[in-house]
Amino acid sequence: MLFHKSVRATSALFGFLFLLMTVVQAQTAKLPNVTILATGGTIAGTGATSTTTVGYTAATVGVQALIQAVPEITKVANITGEQVFQIASENMGNEHWLQLAKRVNVLLAQPNVDGIVVTHGTDTLEETAYFLNLVVKSKKPVVMVGSMRPSTALSADGPINLYNAVSLAGSQAAIGKGVLVAMNDQIHAARDVTKSNTTTADTFRAAELGMIGYIQGGKPFFYREVTRKHTVDTEFDIAKLDALPQVDVAYAYANVGAVAVNALVAAGAKGLVHAGVGNGSLPAKTKPALVAAREKGVVIVRSSRVGQGIVARNGEANDDQLDFVVADTLSPQKARILLMLALTRTSNTKDIQRMFYTY
Fold first, then answer.
1. Using a CB cutoff of 8 Å and minimum separation of 24, what contacts does 233-240 make?
2. What are phi and psi for residue 99, nearest 5 degrees?
3. Judging by DSSP bridges, how do beta strands 213-216 and 186-189 pair with one another?
4. Strands 194-195 and 204-205
5. Separation CA 133–CA 234 (nearest Å)
6. pTM above the 0.85 mark?
7. From start to end of 236-350, where are the E strands?
8. Tens digits of residue pLDDT in 28-51
9. CA 146, CA 44: separation in Å to the nearest integer?
10. How many CB atoms sit inside 10 A of residue 173's CB?
11. Sequence-distant (≥ 6) Cβ neighbours of residue 172 within 8 angstroms
12. Which residues is 35 bridged to in the sheet?
């Protein structure tokens, strides 16, 4: 009798465990599959003490350690991680962008990947975000995330930023919105966002055009749409590209001359973005060098160092006569990215101007 009771108890226990495993597997299967691509930066940085928030060493913590530091993310997504490279983002180069973008496209083409999170240093995060926004060929979410404090700091912002980014990347609401930046409980569009403060946690802003949403309780809330074309709706294809055309930025200031422009052209620039004062004005000492550069075939884009507003075509310069392009609302650093990609397609300035009004 006791034997039969023991058998029945054991059978019941195994039945309960099987049911529990089935429930857990079902819950796991319902979670989105998010891949975290790590590239380094402050979010992977360490400091000498818990109060070291400047003077720390970036890009020392690997992707698996980042994931293990935020176990809560396994409740919102099935996570895999890859270390694409491990650098401070001031060292980000065109070759890194191409490698990262190609990997993102390969992963998003797989049916078992629902979204991508890219951990990144904040110094050039906005540039990488805009590059991916122009070359990713999927509507699936791609979310850029970083932190302003290293992982060892008191009140480090990396863990909650990473949790929010994973939640956003796995959200159905984020599909088709282009590359997003998740920082400080806010959602920003890649085209508009910029780093606005050297050290504070609320540094990422889109001052005039604004953020597009919030993340609260691990859930995204969107309040405006992205209207400029991006990702699957762009004409740029980097699949077979091994390099990008050389495009540089020449910065304007009081008493500026032609030295920078001439040096950049001599160094092989195929395109130049002039970060002009005001509405993209051309200083008298610089303008002849820009005109000469255009006559040599270098494509010139007039932008502004102001950081906000539209650079008016034929406003502070006769762009039609000079055969120049204007940057619309793009910052000089983002205008450089679009010009590089444009030059992989054409050198026709009218067509390039169309791209600046499209993307």
1. 234/134, 234/135, 234/359, 235/345, 235/355, 236/134, 236/135, 236/341, 236/344, 236/345, 237/135, 237/137, 238/98, 238/101, 238/102, 238/135, 238/341, 238/344, 239/102, 239/105
2. -60, -45
3. antiparallel
4. antiparallel
5. 9
6. yes
7. 247-251, 271-276, 299-304, 325-326
8. 569 999 999 999 999 999 999 999
9. 9
10. 14
11. none
12. 80, 116
- Tell me if 325 sits within 8 A of 302, measured CB to CB: yes
User: Is 49 designated active site?
Assistant: no
- The per-residue pLDDT for range 307-337, each reduced to its tens digit, is 999 999 999 999 999 999 999 999 999 999 9
Where would I find the H helices in 139-298? 158-169, 259-266, 287-295
Amino acid identity, position 194: T
Q: How far is CA 54 from the centre of its chain?
A: 23
Structural domains in the chain, sorted by start: 26-233 (3.40.50.1170), 247-358 (3.40.50.40)
Q: Which two tokens stand for residue 126?
A: 């906005």
d(CA 198, CA 211): 19
Cβ contact 161:55 at 8 Å? no
Q: Are strands 78-87 and 33-40 parallel, antiparallel or unpaired?
A: parallel
Catalytic residue among 10, 28, 39, 42: 42
- What is the rounded distance in angstroms from the CA atom of residue 18 to the CA atom of residue 25? 10
Tokens 């054991």 locate to 10
Share of the chain residues as helix, strand and coil, in percent rounded to the nearest 5 = 35, 20, 45
What single-letter amino acid sits at 281? Answer: S
Query: Can you read off the two tokens belonging to residue 226?
Result: 């992205």
β-pair partners for 222: 213
Structure tokens at 7: 């058998």
